[in-house]
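ok so i was messing around last nite and threw this chain in just to see what happens. nothing serious, just curious
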Amino acid sequence: MSLPQANAGFSLVEVMIAVLILGVAIVGLTQGFTTALASSKESELQATAALFAAGQIETLRAETGLTDESTDGDCGEDLPHYRWRQTIAPTDIAGLHKVSVAVEQKQSGELIFELKTLLFEKPAAAKAKSTKNQARGGGDSP
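result:
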């Protein structure tokens, strides 16, 4: 006489539950990878926009003759889908200017990054006085 054998396989219900769990796990992993890629691309865009805005401000710092105005332009061939807008505004202190550089999407106008700072430039009257003193050999004394 032989002993009764136990069921040695999986039932259809067990297989269907295992496939369902595997499907949910794969969907979750796919969503995780998609979110990570989108976040990485957004981070790259933010860093590029921040560097571009900092470059614009450094260009202003290197130039002389700040004028209180708003200007805008394209970000060049490296960033063809984006544009910049810079605003230079006066403050209560002579020679001190509020500077704001914003980088935004060209199509939608959505703001990507904005950098604000203060730049100081000697007022015109002080520059002229300093130049006269230097011409006479007096230096920059007040």
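not much to say yet. The two ends are 119 Å apart (CA to CA).
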